[in-house]
Amino acid sequence: MRLTVVKVGGDVARDVAQLEGLAHALSAMRAEGEQAVVVHGGGPQASELSRRLGIAPVQVEGRRVTDGPTREVAKMVFAGTLNTEIVAALAAR
């Protein structure tokens, strides 16, 4: 059995057509006996929510600086909104 790790960026996760394409591709892989692990980001969504909550996102050399409030935002976005949307798209397939 072959196992593939698929990294889904935040920009893909926010685009319904791309997310549906990903679900289709993963469904085809599964039909062929392959398994996949999906790992997702969500930087754009985390930055957007941070700003809405009045927390200025901080990045140093392209990497997010994660303090206490930013960690809470990341948990809301990654484990909440994005994970739910990605799992729903995959389950629908």
Order of SSEs: EHHEHEEH
Coarse morphology: elongated
Number of helices: 4
Low-confidence stretches: none
Structural class: alpha+beta
Rg, Å, rounded: 15 Å
With strands numbered from the N-terminus, the spatial order across the biggest sheet is 1-2
Secondary structure: number of strands: 4
Strand content: 15-25%
Describe this structure in words.
By secondary structure, the chain is of the alpha+beta class. The protein has four helices and four strands. It has helices at residues 10-14, 16-31, 43-52, 68-92; strands at 3-8, 35-40, 59-60, 63-64. The strands form two sheets. Strands 1-2 form a two-stranded parallel sheet. A hairpin with a 2-residue loop joins strand 3 and strand 4 (63-64). Helix 2 crosses helix 4. The longest helix is centred in the last third of the chain and has 25 residues, at 68-92. The mean pLDDT is 91.
Give the arrangement of secondary structure elements:
Layout: E1 3-8, H1 10-14, H2 16-31, E2 35-40, H3 43-52, E3 59-60, E4 63-64, H4 68-92
Parallel strand pairs: 1-2
Antiparallel strand pairs: 3-4
Give me a quick take on this structure.
This protein has 93 residues and is of the alpha+beta class. It is built from four helices and four strands; from the N terminus they run E-H-H-E-H-E-E-H. Strand 3 and strand 4 form a beta hairpin.
Question: Main traits of this protein?
Answer:
single chain, 93 residues, two-stranded parallel ribbon, two-stranded antiparallel sheet
